[in-house]
Amino acid sequence: MPTLPADTDLDLEPDADGELDAPARSGIQSIEVGFRLLEVLTHTNGPMMLRDLARAAPMNPAKAHRYLVSFARLGLVTQTPEGRYDLGPFALEMGLVSLNRQDPMRRARPAAAALRDEIDHTVGLAVWGNQGPAIVHWEEASHPVTVSLRLGDVMPMLNSATGRVFGAYLPRAQTLPFIQRELERAAAREADPELPRTLEAYDAICAEVRAYGAARIHGGVLPGINAMSLPVFDANAQLCLVLIALGAQSTFDTSWSGPLERRLRLAAQQLSADLGYVAAPA
């Protein structure tokens, strides 16, 4: 682990009293205190009221509010119309940059670009974030489809191919809060009749994803758009990212064992192998 430089290495200037700048030696305590608020928001499942956020920090609400005002000015937090606090756009940007600097992402980006050039469909990559499946990379086709998705957007667990792959391969304890939240929302309103309404129904979908090694969606999240998502595993045989391809229903063939599905499957397998994954013998 790298060590911090000593004061003598920092070429510090004395302050007006002839003392070296203490914060440079020992850090800035107020930053560390305020960071607790960001840490709480990072590990919660959604926006929080000020009193709940302060209690979890733990911190006096008035003090927490002062930190949040500064964080909001920097884009680290944002406030919903209901007055709740959540991570802001700059926090998302930092997270995306960090994810893209990880080794799997560095290897996957050029592979995604090459696959896009070959199949001429939009290709993307998703990872598991603190809010669920997050889109972290897009490679648009020469005939880009009109979609409302942006980098950092979170895909639903129930009716997106990407969410279903994460549901199928990640530990259920990790995904259950997100699945249950969507099931509750589906039960509370008129929803797509093809959506699973129970955990048992979702389990059956996940079993099918594991059986085929891929998930496919016709319409669903994006009307008029077909999508296929496939798992990419690391050297520990753990799901590390999901390979996504999508296109207009008129041109995007989702047939099992069709030419497109076979090419996507090969790309996911090659990427997994590049990351050190060794598949079990068939």
UniProtKB/TrEMBL annotation:
Residues 28-89 form the HTH iclR-type domain. Residues 90-277 form the IclR-ED domain. InterPro entries: GAF-like_dom_sf, HTH_MetabolicPath_Reg, Tscrpt_reg_IclR_C, Tscrpt_reg_IclR_N, WH-like_DNA-bd_sf, WH_DNA-bd_sf. It holds the Pfam family IclR_C. Residues 1-23 are annotated as: Disordered. Residues 8-20 have a biased composition (Acidic residues). The keyword Transcription applies. GO terms for molecular function: DNA binding; DNA-binding transcription factor activity. Keywords: DNA-binding, Transcription, Transcription regulation. GO terms for biological process: negative regulation of DNA-templated transcription. This is IclR family transcriptional regulator. It comes from Ralstonia mannitolilytica.
